[in-house]
Amino acid sequence: MELFPVLHELSERASRYSVNLNGRVSRTLGRNPLRGGTACVYHGTLKPEGTEVAIKTFYCTRSGSEADLKSFPFKRLFREVHTWSKLRHENIVPMLGISTEFDSTFSIVSDWMPMGDARTYVQNAENDPRPLLRDITNGLYYLHSHELGPVVHGDLKGPNVLVSNDHRALLSDFGLSTLNVSTFNMTTEATRGGSLPWMAPELLNDFVASKESDMWAYGMTILELFTRSTPFHDCRSDASVVRRIAEGSLPARPAEESTQFRLSDAWWEICISCWRSDPSSRPTITDVVEKLEATTVCTLSSH
């Protein structure tokens, strides 16, 4: 099938930053994809190695017009390819390449993570969230101190953290991420980003995502993994969540039994500090690393 003009242009642009895997990736038949707001994630195999891969296939329009390249879905796609392709770290899901062979649209190919996401993983109470939080901290430290300039994740939460075969946490889903130093041949507008229960209050007022809003989400992710529940899970509607965040009505410290007695004072103090209403008063991820090392909650290494 001949590519739509916009898809061909998209492929050419994205191929500047990633390996084109056309002809080397096959999707697994009979296995239902995971469906999200912007893409489906299929299981597949990379040839000739036989490596298991995830194929993130985007929902894209098929009009083939030049205007499509300027639409938000495509800008988000460009941002994801551009940013993700520059990330190399043990706590970041590796991006292997791109493909334009599926569903007349565009796909990003990455390592398959058989253990699923962090939220699902900790539903088994025997799985201690603290090693995952160590890995998340290391991954976020890498992003915020990237050599090309700080990378803002923009949508940090348990479902966007995947767990590898050896039980490491790896950050994923960089569709809302921004790399401050951009060499991509297209302007990508900043976006506020985020998912509501993890969203910093300034993002409700159309501020753009920042390292500071990442830290707010990091605090909510700590709470999420210790409690195995979405932040503000007691709210019955999005409007209630928005009201709680806007009013500064923060989550209460959960009962020790609900966290398997794992949520120490040190971890809870980190949560509270990440939820300060003034973004400039929140700790940096470097501050958190130093605090955790000082309190011997866990040993963190920077890469």
UniProtKB/TrEMBL annotation:
UniProt GO MF annotations? ATP binding; protein serine/threonine kinase activity
Among InterPro entries, the record links this protein to: Kinase-like_dom_sf, Prot_kinase_dom, Ser/Thr_kinase_AS, Ser/Thr_Kinases-Pseudokinases
* Domain of life per record: Eukaryota
Domain Protein kinase, by residue range, is 27-303
Tell me the protein's name: Protein kinase domain-containing protein
Q: What is the lineage of its organism?
A: Eukaryota, Fungi, Dikarya, Basidiomycota, Agaricomycotina
Pfam families registered for this protein in UniProt: Pkinase (PF00069)
